[in-house]
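Input structure tokens:
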């Protein structure tokens, strides 16, 4: 790859006024309709200079004519996007995590727009890095990125996980494999004193839901206030909430998920963490299971049989148009979950859809509570862990919200 400079020969993109304002506010995305003029002939993945309507410098970005995101702004400085750039930007991301989680060895090191690196996600599981690249600009510079990562965190291995749908939108092929070093299919790591596993080649996301870390701990604190609690962990995946709940003193934990593979990992982890005797994991569709178990005269357990219910579904929305359907889905699981909760019980509920905001989410929960004649006391408002930074001027960086509610009556 040729060395890039910010010379005047570099192609440039002139933005329309509203788009320019967004970029000034920190947002990295430029859509085709926001572009007034393209100067020169940038190739896909090339660096372009981004200019406001009066031709003033706004930043540098990656161009891709195949993507809806025609330009992803990557820097607000007029300097080359080279090895030194990546070392500095990745170093800043690392410093942020070290400040927030001084003792952690596993965290999301880079979260794309949240770290002003649109198209790049890096998860750190102790000394293994799992990298997801979803823009042509990042793809073309990945060796530079891997070099910089090796320099700042000296990983044992760097795994590439590229089978994400977003790569298609940039014209990038699917891929998954080891880019540097060596590592097995499973990465064992420790977080908050629990032994956990990430399965980057086959698992969901990059293998573990690091964004829920703070909430795993919060739920554990609530369970600890209810010794012997009967816990239902819906959408359990590899059982992170279940393991935290069991270790915090739950009497029994019932985990539900439709992924057999994830539940097999959950089962193993429960045993390895010494809480296997109190955990059951069942392969089930949560909608069907809740329906069967919350109906009067339905299957065992009868309504009111859980002291803690956790709802952590995947996103039910792909776009704004699917919001009404998603809200119906959220309402249904809340109606049924509330029926299963004992008086004084705890509902820990999460929504990872960017298109459903906290206000809409709480409204749905309250409407479900009304239907089953329950009154709720809110005891915590939850967000994504701070290694998934929220930049309010980039609304898309905020996606995970949740609440802990106690059933008053
Ligand atoms: N609670 C987990 C993360 C859950 S991710 C944690 O903290 O680590 C969402 C999970 O929901 C995935 O494991 C997926 O397999 C599961 N899932 C999606 N739809 C489902 C359904 N209808 N019934 C059961 N599980 C479902």
């Amino acid at each position: 790859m040729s060395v890039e400079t910010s010379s005047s020969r570099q192609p440039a993109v002139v933005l329309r006024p509203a788009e320019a304002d967004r970029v000034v506010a920190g947002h990295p995305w430029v859509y085709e309709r926001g572009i007034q003029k393209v100067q020169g002939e940038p190739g896909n993945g090339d660096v372009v200079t981004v200019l406001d309507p009066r031709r003033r410098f706004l930043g540098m970005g990656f161009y891709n004519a195949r993507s809806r995101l025609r330009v992803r702004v990557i820097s607000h400085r007029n300097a080359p996007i080279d090895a030194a750039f990546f070392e500095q930007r990745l170093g800043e991301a690392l410093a942020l995590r070290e400040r927030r989680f001084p003792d952690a060895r596993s965290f999301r090191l880079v979260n794309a727009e949240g770290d002003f690196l649109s198209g790049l996600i890096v998860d750190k599981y102790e000394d293994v890095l799992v990298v997801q690249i979803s823009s042509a600009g990042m793809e073309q510079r990945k060796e530079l990125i891997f070099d910089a990562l090796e320099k700042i965190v000296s990983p044992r291995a760097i795994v590439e996980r590229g089978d994400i749908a977003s790569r298609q939108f940039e014209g990038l092929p699917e891929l998954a494999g080891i880019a540097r070093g060596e590592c097995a299919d499973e990465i064992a790591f420790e977080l908050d004193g629990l032994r956990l596993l990430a399965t980057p080649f086959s698992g969901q996301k990059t293998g573990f839901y690091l964004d829920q870390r703070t909430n795993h701990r919060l739920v554990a604190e609530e369970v600890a206030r209810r010794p012997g609690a009967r816990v239902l962990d819906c959408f359990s995946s590899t059982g992170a909430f279940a393991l935290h709940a069991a270790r915090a003193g739950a009497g029994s934990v019932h985990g539900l998920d439709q992924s057999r593979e994830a539940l097999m990992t959950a089962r193993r982890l429960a045993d390895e963490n010494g809480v296997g005797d109190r955990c059951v994991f069942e392969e089930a569709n949560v909608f069907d299971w809740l329906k069967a178990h919350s109906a009067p005269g339905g299957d065992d357990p009868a309504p009111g049989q859980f002291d803690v219910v956790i709802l952590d579904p995947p996103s039910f929305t792909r776009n704004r148009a699917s919001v009404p359907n998603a809200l119906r889905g959220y309402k249904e699981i809340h109606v049924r979950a509330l029926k299963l909760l004992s008086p004084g019980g705890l509902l820990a509920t999460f929504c990872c859809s960017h298109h459903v905001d906290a206000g809409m989410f709480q409204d749905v929960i309250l409407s479900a509570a009304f239907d089953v004649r329950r009154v709720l006391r809110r005891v915590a408002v939850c967000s994504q862990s701070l290694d998934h930074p929220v930049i309010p001027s980039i609304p898309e960086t905020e996606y995970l919200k949740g609440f802990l509610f106690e059933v008053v009556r």
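The chain has eleven helices and 20 strands. The CA atoms of residues 373 and 409 lie 8 Å apart.
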